Amino acid sequence: MTRKTSMLIVVGLLMLGVAPRPVCAPVGQTPPPGLKVLTLRQQADQINAWMQTRLETVLPALMRRTGIDMWVILNREYNEDPLYFTLVPRPALYSSGTVALIFHDRGPGAGVERLVSAPHGVSGGYRNIWKPRVKTQFETLADYIRQANPRKIGINVSEKWPLADGMTVALRDRLERALGPDLSKRLVSAEDLSVGWLETRTAGEMDTYRDICALAHAHITEFFSSAVVVPGRTTEDDVVWWIRQRVASLGMESWFQPSIDIIRSRKDVALHGEGGVIRPGDLLHCDVGIRYLGLSTDMQWHAYVLRPGETDAPAGLKTALANANRVAEILMAEFKTGRTGREIVTAAMARGRAAGLSLSIYTHPIGFNGHAAGCTPDARDPKTIDEVNIDKWDYPLFPDTAYSIEFSCRTAVPEWDGQEVGIGYEEDAIYTEKNGCQFIDGHQTTLLLVK
User: Fold this and answer.
1) β-strand 358-361 against 364-366: which pairing, if any?
2) Which of 93, 239, 269, 293 is buried deepest, with most CB atoms within 10 A?
3) CA end-to-end span of the chain, whole Å?
4) Residues paired with residue 20 on neighbouring β-strands, in sequence order
5) What pLDDT digit, counting tens, does each position of 96-118 carry?
6) Domain containing 163 — which CATH number?
């Protein structure tokens, strides 16, 4: 449908006394040119290949780093451990009954043996040790652990990390009863092992993460354009639901409900109020996260809606984005192996303030989960965020890990009579020992323009 035809329809509806509904462009069924989204079957094959590599290379190193020679993950159907689906192959969508995954490190020569105690077993190289009509599931599990005689038995219980706290009280009680008091003394929290497993990215994952972020960038560029937004008619909610539908139609997931915010000058607020319909002169802000091939993105970008006769955004808004990019540069330079999140953010906040920037940093890890576990450079008072998890600010930085570089930076805009405009900045990055902290697929350096 052409814009002219669309306008004729609107005029006709008005003549009939029918108010036209806010519109966005129809959702397409193909990805942006040059970018291919794999079928669900192809995605499963890729995820499973990565999982095998991770189990053979990443897991043994992490078990030895954390001093755990046996890791037991226990969960039940519809109440799966947060790590479960990162350890079993697709197309698994649930735990079939009560399942115990057992990882036994036999040493550098023999490697980590993968076993399972489950009614129907688990594919992916796991040997099922349970024979249902011989002994109960937990008796069989306890017999195996007793025979293996591990020094430390890691289980997923943690006050610090929700993602490492997957074992329920009921399952822990059953495990301890089966093991008896002596062996139960060897049970330890596997929180550092769990976090290491979640945060560590393989070379293959890091390479493909670039394509995933490129898809996310193309997605943002698409909905922040006149191809989707019709100034004066399209609302924030119209764009939000367009985003959700578009992501789903491409065979990807939204891991949180996206948001579109209108940042408006005080003069325009006096004329039109806040929010609602997108209008010329608005600064648009989005917060969007997709999950594809098991990896998540989390990004915040900005677009300016041109007024009639304008060809670019006001200089003050462009300066605001430039200041935000300066904060990102300062923060990412502070990423150094072994530093805690608290140390990184303290140094970055001091440097940013010394440079005259008005900033607040709340960066977080990203990977299998959007708000993931790992080094957390967050300048907010931990007690105001989560009193239970305050110790996570002291977790150290390890290489081959990914982060959403997230913060806000406020700048006075002369064209808006000195009104302070906050840039909510978020872009995904990888930290490696060789290259330091670098954006995975670039970052926003200029405001997108909606004509």
Assistant:
1) unpaired
2) 239
3) 18
4) none
5) 999 999 999 998 888 999 999 99
6) 3.40.350.10
